[in-house]
Design goal:
The chain is an alpha+beta fold and 242 residues long. It is built from 5 helices and 13 strands. 19% of the residues lie in helices and 29% in strands. Bound molecules: zinc ion (ZN). Its cofactor is Zn(2+).
Length: 242
């Protein structure tokens, strides 16, 4: 009994270490993410990496974006890599005859994708997943202009401390974080953070959404002077369609 008991205690003690921690990474040297861990090899060796400079898109008669959105409960966190909003699930995107469900959205400052070489002060990524856990991401660029009410709500609720989550008092409808004109570019890409997994269906809205200078500044402050934007990656023969 004694031996069994101590074995059990040992197992319990070891349990927290059984899960191998992912390598720590940051935005100081994103070009070296692939060297931090074998798990991150695609960051260095992948040929379908994001973000990209979107240019010379090929006309492909893309269908209208099939989004079903409504106001939902949400929580916001600055996880040290991004400001992220986790929503109650239910918003959907129909793409390629499959249903993708919105999991979360988050922000990059400045933008990660470029459009015709132009970098925007902020880019939102709306991350959807289908039943096979394949991802589709809608990217939205922000420009300086009138204040965005939803961004205001998010920034008001954002906890000052990293990794502290706050529930939003009002339900969040992402409709006002999307442009009215929903024309988009489409290309195949990856996560823009380690492990840089590929097979992500990227849809980047052509029209930007406005945010006030103060709102854009608030994201900059929250995400640090260095920002959280991976440099653009080579296309390697990929096509962007529109
Ligand atoms: Zn992102």
């Amino acid at each position: 009994m004694k031996i069994k008991h101590s074995l059990f205690a040992l197992l319990l003690a070891a349990a927290p270490y059984a899960h191998v921690q992912a390598a720590a990474w940051d935005y100081a040297q994103p070009q070296h993410w692939g060297d931090l861990s074998p798990d991150f090899h695609l960051c260095k060796q992948g040929v379908n990496q994001s973000p990209i400079d979107i240019r010379q898109a090929v006309y492909a008669r893309l269908p209208a974006l099939a989004l079903e959105l409504q106001a939902r409960q949400a929580a916001i966190v600055n996880n040290g890599h991004t400001v992220q909003v986790n929503l109650q699930q239910g918003d959907t995107l129909k793409l390629d005859d499959e249903t993708f469900t919105l999991k979360q959205f988050h922000f990059h400052t400045p933008s990660e994708n470029l459009i015709d070489g132009k970098r925007y002060p902020l880019e939102g990524h709306f991350v959807f997943s289908n039943q096979q856990q394949q991802l589709a991401v809608i990217g939205v660029m922000f420009v300086t202009g009138s204040a965005n009410p939803v961004l205001g709500t998010l920034l008001d609720a954002l906890p000052a401390q990293v990794d502290q989550s706050a529930t939003l008092q009002e339900d969040v409808d992402i409709t006002s974080l999307l442009p009215v004109d929903r024309h988009y570019f489409r290309f195949s890409g990856s996560l823009t953070t380690p492990p840089c997994s590929e097979g992500v269906r990227w849809l980047v809205m052509k029209q930007p959404v406005s945010a006030s200078a103060a709102q854009l500044q608030a994201f900059s402050v929250a995400l640090g002077a260095q920002g959280n934007s991976r440099p653009v990656q080579p296309l390697y023969g990929r096509l962007v369609v529109e």
